[in-house]
Fold this sequence. Notes:
The structure holds two protein chains of two kinds.
Chain A: H1 9-24, H2 33-39, H3 42-52, H4 60-74, H5 77-92, H6 98-106, H7 118-135, H8 138-152, H9 165-177, H10 181-194, H11 199-202, E1 210-216, E2 221-225, E3 231-235, E4 245-248, E5 251-255, E6 257-261, H12 262-267, H13 274-300, H14 306-324, E7 340-346, E8 351-358, E9 362-369, E10 375-379
Parallel strand pairs in A: 1-10
Antiparallel strand pairs in A: 1-7, 2-3, 4-5, 4-8, 6-7, 8-9
Helix pairs in contact in A: 2-3, 3-4, 4-5, 5-7, 7-8, 8-9, 9-10, 13-14
Chain B: H1 2-18, H2 42-57, E1 70-79, H3 86-101, E2 106-107, H4 113-124, E3 148-161, E4 164-177, E5 183-196
Helix pairs in contact in B: 2-3
Amino acid sequence: MPRRGSCPSEVRLKALFFLVAVQVGCSSTGPTPADSFYRGDLERALDLAAEKAQPRDEDYALHRNEEASVCLALGRWDRALSAILEANRVIESFGGAQGREVLAIVASESAKVFKGEPYERAMNAYYGGLLYLIRGDHDNGLAGFRNALFRDAASADPKYEGDFGPALYLLGREALRNGDIEEAHRYLDSLRARFPNNPYVAKPDPEANLLLFVDLGRGPEKVAAGLQGSKTEYRIEGGLVSGCDVRLGSTFLGRTARLESLYFQATTRGPREFDAILEGKAIAREASEKVGLGLLWAGATGHGSRDGRTLATLGGGLFLLSRLIQSDVDVRHWACLPREIHILEARVEPGRYEIEITGAGREVRAIEVRPEGQTVVYARPDLPRRKLPSPQPTSERKEP
Amino acid sequence: MRCALQPFVFLGLAVVLWGCSSPARRVDLDRDDEVGGTGLDAADVRSMADQMARSLSGCEEIFREGTTPRVMIKDIRNNSRFFVDKGLLVQSIRTRLMEASGGRIRFLAREHLDAVLDEREAKRSGAVGVTTDAEGEPRLGEVAGADYLLTGILSGIAKSSGGDASDYLRASFQLVDTETGELVWEGAYEVKKVGEEGVVYR
């Protein structure tokens, strides 16, 4: 006969497991811009990204970056550039959010203002440079590529510092155009070693007046792994991405070649100083969780004795404490990034054309090859599309 | 139980208050803001424009023979790693130069040349009225040419280590005689900034 006020251990156990289930919980997230983006519903993706991008939100730069990705796929260059610059302001800032940084240390890392990993910061700068080139603002275009290299230099392993392919290629190509062979070698030699089969890297043509940059595949997904989710890992879907065939009107221009793998960039970042803090939190969480559950179990099977109740209270307290220690790594990431960046360069007569890029998908864009300077074209052909993107705006400036 | 919960309640309140937003406020344009960053900001643009305006106004050579020199600002080149709004830079410098020179330097608005030519054509064809001088003669003239070109270049050296960044930026400006190609004046504005990321970004 159980005592008054006590309950059978089976009931306690159920209550215990209910408590664990509630504490562990599961958070539900709403639809993300990336989901709509990869379904090909670009307008919906754009609405979602714009809706989520609130200036005082810690994810502001992330959503602005995603907005830029969608705008790039839609060919809305001005809005893409505006979003990139907004995100860039956050990335370039120092301080101003110390409260969030403290929260990121004592609570969850994801409380900090999102600035992205080095490869994401480099992509922000690269896209900014590309968009300025599309506008015909050569200087700011090159500034973006210099910044991309600067951002990529944050890798912990010096071997991978400043090895961001698109920036090396564009700065090397620019040096060749200016006749600075030594400077060109400085940028291109390491890139040639990484991409020996890329003909445009092996021998860039400074006279080429059409540059095509193609984003392919789905970028690396950042996930929490290791003890209590305290380690960062990256996942990618599918196998290697093959290049695309490019036609200008009825003329076959060539095949795109790989210039960068964002999975490579993401996974060569090296360890962070903050990883040690997360590891310490993970050990504390693991220990308090295990000891807490052990004491709870011991208390639950103690048949309501005073010692049993004390153990259960202590165990419950420790278990709740373990729930307060958040050791999960911040898994927010720029999900609309591609897996690979490909290029093609060609000499083309000035004029209006339809450029067709086919491979994993198909994209047709109306372009105008300028009579002077170089014309830069961006494409994301492997997205399922409901509509073809609108043509380039006419607010472009001439390249000096 | 109440005592046990109290620290959590206070901690929660502190976190909520910490996260409260504050209304937008005016700040001094010439001071560094809390957001930081190692690129050019409003204070730099203003200091640069002031410094260049003072220096150029003191260049006696361009005021020789009692003439009013006409200056055209050419594009400012950006060789730094930062995206720069060159239009803003040019406007700031022009405004400051006009203020500092007290009308002793004239600037050419070549960005409006098409509109100027259209208006001249309309005046000469009688489609629109023309201002007259003291003698009642129509005040017509030639489109002014530039005596000097003002050019600029923004360069930088960037370094980073872990979460730290250091940027040295140098904006140099030159005034070139459009007849002789001589460099008649040069001025530079320099700034070096360092920033340190918190441990959560390292």
